[in-house]
């Protein structure tokens, strides 16, 4: 082999993972994914701290900057942490992941996220053996979030995962979308992304992460226990009491629907987490 | 002039919808947005229809309102028209779902559907011939319009989380008017009873 060819080959080999981490990820977890239009994903948002109207969130969030702040990580851990949300990428290495996103309201999107694997953060905090769950609590500022005035919800927004879910390779902390920092309406400065669960699990604007021994309470489970379970795994067989979950509509589509897939199509990666669990009862 | 104003008022929700669809945009879930817009249009006209006779009674002898009250058929038919589009678009949205028929059994869906059926029945019998033919039953039938209120309160409440506030927003004014009229009546009868006693 000539020296020139060798250098060329080396260059290619080096360039391959460097050039397109997004493509590498896509090849691994579903290359058929075409991201939804950015305008759709950033204009149609469930963020009840601002408004219950999905179209009203962006106008209300205009000019409101959330973060940066220090993310608090505590509870049953060896090493409680305070991490600057701006330094997460630097600490854990930034990745780009294109995930399917499925809202419990039967609409869906494909979103290119940017951020860090949740697993890495959990490992840094070193949970104690008694830590079985992870609780996430969102930011709450009535001065800039008019929706908080609604007494209907037990604010602040909180969510939870089992620790094996939180340390799954797919669980992600996003700080950006479409190659830009997260806009306020999408959960700035940092949000959870759990692509095999309904979107409400992917809590926005996270302030603290706490490791607990028992299953934490979550906002939606408190508000409607019959409709929003702790697991909330995407499942076409288990209907929401008020609508069917068998199909979903991609944002931007008028009438066309596509079949919803078990675990939002990530069954190959996550189904083993739920072996022996009755998914109908543990919705 | 009276009729012109009324027609303008009844067309206002349609004008708003067309303006939003063409100038503002229907957003990421366009059909859902249209369904909501026509739903609110139907509600707007329905609440107007139900409030009108009470307001007219409260504003005794107002010729303008009396004239509008006599034109309730037009108002009711407008509500039916908006409601029909609302339902039609919902049907279009859901038709492709394999659970179309099963979905009809959900309280969120059937409360809205039954309200529409009531309005359809009232619309079909709103002509003079039916009125004469049905005699006393016509009044009975047309009182069914009030059944739409609890049905639609349930429909709105189940729409999304915390939507009881939405139901109150739509039907609050009607409830307030109804209570005002009741209170005034009660006071009047009491005063009359007192004056009779003296």
UniProtKB/TrEMBL annotation, chain B:
It is found in: Membrane. The keyword Transmembrane applies. Residues 40-152 form the Ferric oxidoreductase domain. The chain crosses the membrane at residues 33-55, 75-96, 108-129, 141-158, 164-180. It comes from the Bacteria. GO terms for molecular function: FMN binding; heme binding; oxidoreductase activity, acting on diphenols and related substances as donors. Keywords: Iron, Membrane, Transmembrane, Transmembrane helix, Transport. Its main location: membrane. The keyword Repressor does not apply. Pfam families: Ferric_reduct (PF01794). It is a multi-pass membrane protein. GO terms for cellular component: plasma membrane. Signal peptide: none annotated. PANTHER family: PROTEIN-METHIONINE-SULFOXIDE REDUCTASE HEME-BINDING SUBUNIT MSRQ (PTHR36964). This is Ferric oxidoreductase domain-containing protein.
């Amino acid at each position: 082999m000539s020296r020139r060819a060798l250098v060329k080959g080396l260059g290619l080999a080096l360039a391959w993972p460097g050039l397109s981490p997004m493509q590498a990820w896509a090849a691994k977890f579903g290359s058929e994914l075409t991201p939804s239009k950015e305008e759709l994903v950033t204009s149609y948002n469930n963020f009840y701290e601002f408004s219950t109207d999905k179209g009203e969130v962006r106008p209300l969030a205009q000019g409101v900057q959330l973060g940066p702040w220090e993310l608090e990580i505590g509870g049953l851990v060896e090493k409680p942490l305070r991490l600057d949300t701006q330094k997460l990428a630097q600490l854990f290495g930034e990745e780009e992941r294109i995930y399917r996103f499925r809202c419990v309201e039967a609409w869906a999107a494909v979103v290119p996220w940017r951020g860090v694997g949740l697993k890495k953060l959990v490992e840094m905090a070193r949970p104690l053996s008694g830590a079985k769950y992870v609780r996430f609590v969102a930011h709450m500022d009535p001065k800039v979030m008019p929706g908080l005035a609604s007494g209907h919800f037990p604010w602040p927004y909180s969510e939870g995962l089992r620790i094996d879910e939180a340390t799954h390779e797919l669980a992600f902390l996003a700080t950006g979308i479409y190659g830009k920092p997260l806009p306020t309406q999408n959960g700035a400065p940092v949000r959870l992304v759990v692509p095999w669960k309904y979107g409400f699990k992917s809590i926005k604007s996270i302030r603290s992460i706490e490791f607990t021994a028992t299953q934490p309470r979550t906002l939606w489970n408190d508000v409607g226990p019959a409709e929003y379970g702790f697991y909330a795994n995407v499942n076409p067989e288990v209907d929401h009491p008020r609508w069917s979950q068998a199909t979903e509509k991609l944002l931007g589509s008028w009438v066309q629907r596509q079949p919803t897939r078990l675990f939002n199509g990530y069954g190959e990666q996550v189904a083993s987490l739920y072996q022996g669990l009755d998914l109908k009862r543990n919705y | 002039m009276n009729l012109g104003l009324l027609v303008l008022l009844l067309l206002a929700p349609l004008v708003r919808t067309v303006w939003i669809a063409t100038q503002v945009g229907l957003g990421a879930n366009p059909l859902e947005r249209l369904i909501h817009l026509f739903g609110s249009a139907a509600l707007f006209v329905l609440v107007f229809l139900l409030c009108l006779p009470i307001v007219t009674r409260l504003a005794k002898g107002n010729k303008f309102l009396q004239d509008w009250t006599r034109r309730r058929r037009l108002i009711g038919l407008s509500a039916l028209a908006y409601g029909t589009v609302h339902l039609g678009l919902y049907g279009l949205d859901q038709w492709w779902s394999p659970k179309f028929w099963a979905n009809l059994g959900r309280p969120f869906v059937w409360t809205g559907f039954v309200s529409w059926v009531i309005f359809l029945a009232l619309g079909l019998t709103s002509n003079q011939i039916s009125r004469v033919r049905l005699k006393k039953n016509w009044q009975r039938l047309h009182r069914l319009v009030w059944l739409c209120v609890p049905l639609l309160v349930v429909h709105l409440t189940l729409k999304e989380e915390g939507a009881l506030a939405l139901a109150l927003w739509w039907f609050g004014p009607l409830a307030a008017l109804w209570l005002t009229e009741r209170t005034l009546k009660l006071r009047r009868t009491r005063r009359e009873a007192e004056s009779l006693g003296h």
